[in-house]
Specification:
Order of helices and strands: EHEHEEEEEHEEEEHE
Structural class: alpha+beta
Shape: globular
Strand order of the largest sheet: 3-4-2-1-12-11
Largest sheet: 6 strands, mixed
Number of domains: 1
CATH architecture: 4-Layer Sandwich
CATH superfamily: Endonuclease/exonuclease/phosphatase
Helix content: 10-25%
Number of helices: 4
CATH topology: Deoxyribonuclease I, Chain A
Strand content: 25-35%
Number of strands: 12
Distance between the termini: 11 Å
């Protein structure tokens, strides 16, 4: 099965207000996903370098970042990044520009996993409900326009507090929601801000939120994950 995860790492700053990127990588190793969408993966100020140093990713994990190369020493676009196992082939990647008030965005990468093509979208949406709906429509329309068609997985921090309404309605009929459970706040999770949606090409075998002592300290969000098989 293909295991995917989404994780807002809060620029590597934990709930103890300490920046510990190695702790984030330890959590990713605990989750054990094949593909990970990260949010807030770059520092907010200055040159906005990666919150996870490249040499640390290489030495502590089996992951490589998809090379979006929007800034020197950054691994993402507006903090959105995708990590994949070294065994996965990266065949394409792009930036998805969104209508925005805040510095938000999305990224997309086409991958080959065990001889199967998969399209991954990572996103971090606006705090404004109206803007979130516009952003989801924009993501979906840009993905629909990409050729060739590929089974798609869209995941990230949607900032949607509603259980079923808001921007979530835009996915209905087009993608299945993996019911991962609450992920925010990591100390006492009550909100499903982090979501994973998959196209009809997939069967959702299992999904959840990763709870561990290290995960509760590494960020204010918990990672969410899903195990998928192809129909």
């Amino acid at each position: 099965m293909l295991k995917v995860a989404s994780y807002n790492i809060r620029k590597g700053i934990g709930t103890d207000r300490l920046r510990r990127p190695e702790r984030v990588l330890d959590v990713l190793n605990e989750v054990g996903a094949d593909i990970v969408a990260l949010q807030e993966a770059d520092r907010r100020f200055g040159n906005r370098i990666s919150a996870l140093p490249l040499d640390l990713i290489a030495s502590h994990t089996d992951y490589v970042p998809v090379p979006f190369e929007t800034r020197p020493d950054s691994i993402g676009h507006h903090g959105n990044a995708i990590l994949v196992r070294r065994s996965i082939e990266i065949v394409g990647h792009d930036i998805i520009h969104l209508p925005m008030i805040e510095p938000r965005g999305a990224v997309v990468s086409d991958l080959i996993w065990k001889n199967k093509a998969v399209r991954i979208v990572g996103m971090h949406l606006d705090l404004s409900g109206l803007r979130r709906r516009q952003q989801v429509r924009s993501v979906l329309s840009q993905i629909d326009a990409r050729t060739p068609h590929m089974p798609s997985i869209l995941m990230g921090d949607l900032n949607e507090w509603s259980r079923q309404g808001g921007c979530l309605g835009e996915f209905v009929g087009r993608h299945h929601d993996c019911h991962t459970g609450p992920s925010f706040h990591s100390q006492r999770p009550v909100a499903r801000l982090d979501r994973i949606f998959v196209s009809h090409d997939f069967h959702i075998r299992a999904a959840g939120t990763h709870h561990s002592l290290k995960a509760r300290r590494a960020s204010d969000h918990l990672p969410v994950w899903a195990e998928l098989s192809f129909d």
